[in-house]
Amino acid sequence: MSLLVFTPACPLTWRRQCIQLELRNDHGWASLLHTYNISLSAAQKTKILFALTCSRDKNKLHRLLDLGLEGKVIRSQDLSSLILMVARNPQGHHLAWDFVKQNWDTLVQKFQLGSFCIRSIVIGTTGQFSTPEELTEVQLFFESIKEQASQLRATRVALDNVQKNVRWFQRNLEPLRTWLNKQMK
Predict the structure, then answer these.
(1) How do residues 118-164 score in pLDDT, each as one tens digit?
(2) Which of 37, 60, 80, 103 could be stapled to 117 by a disulfide with Cβ–Cβ 3.0 to 4.6 Å?
(3) Under 8 Å CB-to-CB from 154, ≥6 apart: which residues?
(4) What is the CA 118 to chain-centroid distance, rounded?
(5) Rounded distance, CA 78 to CA 152, Å?
(6) Rounded to 5 degrees, what angle do the CA atoms 78, 163, 93 make?
């Protein structure tokens, strides 16, 4: 198994290229995960975790989320950051939201209702939603946890953000499409 070791002397662009090469295959991804696991530096662990969440493979992203919830390979204190990193990935934002819904009770146990982590997870996993269907999905979930949601200001913020995104798309999608078509001619 190849082992990636990043030193401060190694230029950042080389490190990025090395990580991109490693992520292209299963062996490289597993090697990077192993490097995360044996690293003693919290800063290095964060950088490697971010790199791992850049994968386009939804199965790998899901595996990362499961490993984070388990807390053995990926540290429990990294779970909220991991969820947010996956949510920022275009391949992972729905995956992260589904993960939060499916594991809500466990997440609340780990981080406590009203904590910064729960607030960040709720707002971060819904932040890219911009369709009426996604808005409905978020509303239905918050209604299903109504008692807890009423204690969380983050649910109101998340709903407001999705509503703003929906309105923005409804107002701007057609003018943007028209402008882009004119630019392409």
Answers:
(1) 999 999 999 999 999 999 999 999 999 988 887 888 999 999 999 99
(2) 80
(3) 118, 119, 122, 123
(4) 13
(5) 22
(6) 35
Spatial separation of the C-alpha atoms in residues 183 and 42, rounded to whole Å: 46
At 116, the amino acid letter reads: F
Q: Report residues of the chain scoring pLDDT below 50.
A: 1-12, 14, 17, 21
Domain borders along the chain are 53-184
Extract the tokens encoding 128: 């890219």
Q: Which of 116, 54, 114 is nearest to 86 (CA)?
A: 54
Within a 13 Å sphere around the CA of 33, how many CA atoms are in the beta-carbon half? 20
Which DSSP letter does residue 74 get?
S
Tokens 């971060």, residue?
Answer: 124
Residue whose pair of structure tokens reads 């991109």 in the numeric block: 20
| Type of residue found at 79 | L
Q: Which residue has the tokens 């979930």?
A: 141
The neighbour count for residue 167, using CB atoms within 10 Å, is 11
Cβ atoms < 10 Å from Cβ of 108? 18
What pLDDT score does 1 carry? Answer: 38
CATH class of 53-184: mainly alpha
